[in-house]
Write a structure and sequence with these properties.
Blueprint: E1 2-10, E2 42-44, E3 47-57, E4 62-69, H1 78-83, E5 101-103, H2 111-119, E6 123-125, H3 130-138
Parallel strand pairs: 1-5, 5-6
Antiparallel strand pairs: 1-3, 2-3, 3-4
Length: 153
C-alpha cells in the first residue's frame, strides 16, 4: 500500500541565490515560459514557496520524493512520483517499481492518473472530485462509468 500526498514549504527570501533582474523600461520583468526540472521555487503572493510530493508506504517510510515549485498542481505530479519508486528485492534482481495499491486525496483525481493506474494494474483508492462527477453525469451514457471508490481501503 502506497500513499501519495504533498505539502507546501516556505523558502527563505535568499533561497533563490540570484538578484532580481532590473525592471525593463516597460516596467515588466522577463519571466520564463516554463520552469526547468531542477528548479523548485515558485513565487506567489506569500513569497517563495516549494511543494514536496511524497510517496510513502504503510509503514510510514518514504519511497519517492519529488520537489516542484508551489504553483504546480498535485495531479500531474502523481505519475512522476510513482515512477521514482524503487524497492530493492532481498534476493537480488530488479527493484520493485509497481505497488499493489495506491491511495491519495481528491487532488490526485484525474482521468490521466486513473488510466495510468489501470494500465499498470495498480488498485487505487482516490475519491472523485464533485465537479468531475457532475461533468460525467451531465454527459449521460457518454460520460462513462463512475470511478470505483471504496472508502474502507
Amino acid at each position: 500500500m502506497v500513499s501519495v500526498d504533498s505539502t507546501v514549504c516556505r523558502a527563505h527570501q535568499h533561497a533563490a541565490g540570484a538578484r532580481k533582474q532590473a525592471p525593463r523600461k516597460s516596467g515588466k520583468r522577463a519571466r520564463p515560459a516554463q520552469h526547468r526540472s531542477d528548479e523548485a521555487l515558485g513565487r506567489s503572493r506569500g513569497g517563495l514557496t516549494t511543494k514536496i510530493h511524497l510517496a510513502g508506504e504503510s509503514g510510514l517510510r518514504p519511497l519517492a520524493v519529488l520537489v516542484t515549485p508551489r504553483q504546480w498542481g498535485d495531479a500531474p505530479q502523481m505519475i512522476p512520483v510513482l515512477e521514482r519508486i524503487r524497492v530493492p528485492r532481498p534476493a537480488g534482481g530488479h527493484p520493485r517499481t509497481r505497488p499493489d495499491h495506491v491511495s491519495g486525496d481528491k487532488a490526485y483525481s484525474s482521468r490521466r492518473n486513473r488510466r495510468y493506474l489501470r494500465r499498470r494494474q495498480i488498485k487505487h483508492t482516490i475519491p472523485e472530485r464533485r465537479d468531475q462527477r457532475a461533468h460525467r453525469q451531465r454527459r449521460g451514457s457518454n460520460g462513462g462509468r463512475p470511478a470505483g471508490f471504496d472508502p474502507t481501503h
